[in-house]
Design a protein that fits this description.
Layout: E1 19-21, E2 39-41, E3 59-61, H1 80-83, E4 95-97, E5 100-102, E6 115-117, E7 120-122, E8 135-137, E9 209-211, E10 229-231, E11 240-241, E12 249-250, E13 259-260
Parallel strand pairs: 1-2, 2-3, 3-4, 4-6, 5-7, 6-8, 9-10, 10-12, 11-13
Amino acid sequence: MVTFLVVSSGRRTKRDRLTFNHSDFFRAVLRGSDLYGALLYEDNFRSADLSGVNAAGAVFDHSAFSGVSFAPCLNLATQALEENTPIASQLSGATFRDAYGREPNFNGSCLAGAIFNNAIFDGSNFSETDLSGARFQHVDLRKPVFSDGNLLNISFTPDPPNDPKKHANIEGGDFSRSDLRESHFAFADLSSVKFSQADLTKADFSNAILRNVDFSGADLTDAKFESAVLESVTFENSRLERTSFLGAHTTLSFDSLRSCQIILPNGSTTLGNCGPKSPLPTPKAEASRPCPK
């Protein structure tokens, strides 16, 4: 096991960025290290401890992350130690390009505005993270956990969106109780994904594949499922108001849904039950936002 700590006295510029190429950090302890804006290429972070690091703006290129941990920790360089308060890993604006690994742990991290491009993570843990504005382009994230997080305006939509080679695979994922307002899932494979009790107001599922998906207790006000494939989808106790299913491919019985003014696949609009709104469970994301304000 290697113990390694990087400490900086100030904000680095692009000229004095830390650079690590082909480095082996297997089982290294990098807890609380300052990797702000670092450039890391083809490095091995398998089973490394990066708890509480500051890697905002860093670029992780072609690096391995199996078993890595970015979970919050006590940072000796901060006042939080005296208060016994774990410090979240700061990864806002970081780029993970062609990264790969099994079961990386990002629990409780700040990943606002982060970019995951061509990443392959199996069983990744993004629970209780701040991923607001994050972009996942051409990713394979089988069975990821995104529960209880701030995922406002997160995007899994490829660029260009109609490129079948870049569609996101989030099969078996769990987004339960997360804030997913204005999120983008167009063209994504969402088979066997859970969105129970999530806030999906204005979310976009256009052209997505939704098989065996659970939306129970979710708020889908103004969400779009246009031209999507829906099979064995559960909307029990969910809120469907002004939700659009225009052009959707489904055998769903809309008469049994708790809905108001939704747009059916044929383009017609239903009146539905437009009575007073009954409260839905509040996502827990509001209580867990590790990014500094």
